[in-house]
Design brief:
It is a single chain. By secondary structure, the chain is an alpha+beta fold. Helix content is 31%, strand content 24%. It has eight helices and 16 strands. It has helices spanning 20-28, 36-51, 81-93, 141-178, 230-248, 254-266, 353-361, 371-381, and strands spanning 54-59, 68-72, 104-107, 114-122, 125-133, 189-196, 207-213, 219-226, 274-282, 287-293, 299-301, 307-309, 314-315, 328-331, 337-341, 391-398. A hairpin with a 2-residue loop joins strand 4 and strand 5.
């Protein structure tokens, strides 16, 4: 089957200067998003509207097993899919446009229905073929040229859409690589952690939680918040976490861990500052020792479900090189739940931070609930799903301690 020239039918108005504005608008309606399927649908809608027929796309050149996509108009008008695929291959042999992208007017297998096929080509890559058909009236040269312009625009946007998906996939892999799992606490401690990055396309940001096993059954719990968002903050976050794990292996008290983290970060001018709260839990003594680098205080939920905040001396953020961190130690019983969090959990733009913390303190909990239930409740009550910043939150409960040999039984 040879491509045939337009049969010389009158141009049906597509070349009239008064329609230039309308045709320009038609072209601009293609490629309004970075969604490939949407671009195909926009193309066939405009093609059908401008030719008064039916338009569809054979994706990726119409490989075997495929079919028409984004059909706009009466599907019954379209030629048999096998005939259309053969017509596409034949038209490609005679294509003369850049990258093989010229239109070809053809007659359908019964010779009565005109068909126009136009490859979607950008930078030499074919993304599919536009197939237009209508009853009786042949396609004109002007129509073929205009549809070639539409497919050229559509192919360009499809190329951008695929490049966007490729880059997004790379970013997603990088983010998953940065999203390291926290360590495991000692079995004498129940811990639950939730992380909710702000933004739909983000998997990880600058907020983080960490748990580190220490000697004598103690566990170090950490929350941190690197200034900023996105991948740059996430990269610095992983640097802080790596340094923390290294420093914690020396079993230093929390305020000295912060001091060393500050020294390391301040020696790297490109490192973003970060806030950090460290809690060292000692189940054998039933106590927690805290130290803060510019971070919000932790909350404690008692056995009756009431919430209160634990005052902690606040030192400067990590990375300033100023040091000056101090510890605070409190009793902690198995009936209580310790809650560490980043500011995204409570802060609202334009709201005083004291008022934000009061809202957290006003959250009531059922008595005797586990750490997962605590996080479910606090995230729901504070509407963390619509937070304006990344949210990281950690809940911890001590197990009931068995008496040591020789201790009095109560």
């Amino acid at each position: 089957m040879e491509p045939v020239a337009s049969p010389g039918v009158p141009e049906q108005g597509l070349g009239i200067p008064s329609r230039l504005t309308e045709l320009r608008t038609s072209v601009e309606r293609i490629g309004t998003t970075l969604e490939e399927d949407v671009t195909y649908a926009e193309l066939t809608r405009e093609a059908a509207a401008q030719t008064g027929g039916t338009a569809a796309v054979l994706r990726r050149g119409g490989e075997a097993g495929g079919g028409y996509a984004a059909v706009h108009g009466d599907p019954a008008v379209l030629p048999d899919i096998r005939w259309a695929m053969a017509a596409v291959r034949e038209a490609a042999r005679h294509a003369t446009g850049p990258g093989g992208g010229s239109a070809a007017s053809l007659s359908s297998s019964d010779g009565a229905r005109p068909v126009l096929v136009v490859p979607l080509v950008a930078d030499g890559v074919r993304y599919g073929v536009l197939v237009c058909a209508r009853d009786r009236t042949p396609f004109t040269r002007t129509e073929a040229e205009f549809l070639a312009l539409l497919t050229e625009r559509a192919a360009s946007h499809i190329r951008h859409a695929r490049e966007h998906e490729r880059v997004k996939g790379i970013v997603g892999k990088l983010q998953r690589a940065l999203l390291a799992e926290p360590g495991r606490p000692h079995p004498n401690l129940d811990v639950a952690i939730r992380y909710m990055p702000v933004g739909q396309s983000t998997l990880v940001g600058g907020d983080w939680c960490e748990t580190v096993r220490l000697h004598f059954g103690r566990t170090l719990l950490v929350v941190g918040d690197v200034m900023g968002h996105g991948l740059e903050a996430a990269v610095d976050m992983t640097a802080y976490r790596s340094a923390l794990r290294y420093i914690a292996s020396a079993d230093l008290p929390p305020h000295r861990v912060l001091r060393q983290l500050d020294d390391i970060a301040s020696a790297e001018p490109e490192r973003r500052p970060a806030t950090c709260l460290i809690a060292r839990l000692d189940p054998n003594r039933g106590q927690v020792t805290l130290a803060s680098a510019g971070h919000l205080p932790p909350a404690v939920i008692d056995g009756e479900g009431r919430t209160s905040l634990l005052p902690v001396p606040v030192g400067p953020p990590l990375g300033t090189g100023l040091g000056g961190y101090e510890p605070a130690t409190y009793k902690l019983s198995p009936a209580q739940t310790l809650l560490l969090f980043t500011d995204g959990l409570v802060e609202h733009r334009g709201e005083d931070i004291d008022h934000s913390l009061d809202r957290l303190a006003g959250v009531g909990f059922d008595s005797a609930v586990g750490v997962e239930d605590v996080l479910d409740t606090v995230l729901a009550r504070l509407d963390a799903a619509n937070a304006e910043d990344d949210v990281a939150v950690l809940a911890a409960q001590l197990h009931e301690r068995s008496p040591l040999p020789g201790e009095a039984q109560g």
